[in-house]
Amino acid sequence: MTTLALGPAWLDPDYLISAFGLLGILAIVFAESGLLIGFFLPGDSLLFTTGLLVADRQYLTQPLWLVCTLVVAAAIAGDQVGYLFGRKAGPALFRRPDSKFFKQENVAKAHDFFEKYGPRSIVLARFVPIVRTFTPIVAGVSRMHYRTFVVYNIIGGIAWGSGVTVLGYFLGQVAFVKNNIEAILVGIVVVSVLPVAIELLKARRSARRAS
């Protein structure tokens, strides 16, 4: 494995897994899935790297089925906490001032995403960084029917948590992937952030036209 050349070293998936193991993975997945402070944590690249390391039995010696089960459980639990926090915080969340770890624009993006896709946003948001963290909170603020949220949360947690991990597991056994792992991880980060970048560009263009 090589070090991902994006962001600080302590956010590198390989470093995080080597330092904290499976418990660290579960903590990060839980935090990024529904805690306000978790939006900057690696998600897609972390799970992909997890699959790679399970295949190589490097740092992670647990079987794939167990890793996927625990990751899915952490993802679902994180969204549940985010939803309950949103229901409790309510409109106060939208009046909260910006800080180092909280930006109103992130809440606004998640709100627009939720309004656009409805219940499906709980599943789709899993694959969009930042939006992934704030969508369950917005669902709680909007008082989305709890049973409906639970169903979509489970579907999204399984699709994302096990899907990306299994993808990393099988691709990790391909020679080309092993030899170009850093470039592939960078590509995953770029592709996952692309939807957010596109929405930002659209918002800026709309603001310019309005002005």
Morphology call: globular
The main β sheet shows up as: none
Question: What is the total tally of β strands?
Answer: 0
Strand content: under 5%
What is the domain tally?
A: 1
Low-confidence stretches: 1-6
What is the H/E string?
HHHHHHHHH
- Integer average pLDDT: 79
Give the % helix. over 70%
Number of helices: 9
Q: Structural class, from helix and strand content?
A: mainly alpha
What is the CA-based Rg, rounded? 17 Å
Q: Report the end-to-end length measured between terminal Cα atoms.
A: 49 Å
Question: How does this structure look, described?
Answer:
Helix 1 (13-34) crosses helix 2 (44-56), helix 3 (64-89) packs across helix 6 (131-141) and helix 3 (64-89) runs antiparallel to helix 7. Mean pLDDT is 79; it is low at 1-6. The protein has one domain (9-210). The longest helix is centred in the last third of the chain and has 30 residues, at 181-210. The chain has 211 residues and is an all-alpha fold. The protein has helices spanning 13-34, 44-56, 64-89, 104-117, 121-124, 131-141, 146-171, 175-179, 181-210. The N and C termini lie far apart (49 Å).
Please outline what is shown here:
It contains nine helices and no strands. With 211 residues, the protein is mostly helical.
Task: For this entry, give a set of tags.
single chain, mainly alpha, 9 helices, 0% strand, globular
List the helices and strands and how they pair.
Layout: H1 13-34, H2 44-56, H3 64-89, H4 104-117, H5 121-124, H6 131-141, H7 146-171, H8 175-179, H9 181-210
Helix pairs in contact: 1-2, 1-3, 1-6, 2-7, 2-9, 3-6, 3-7, 4-6
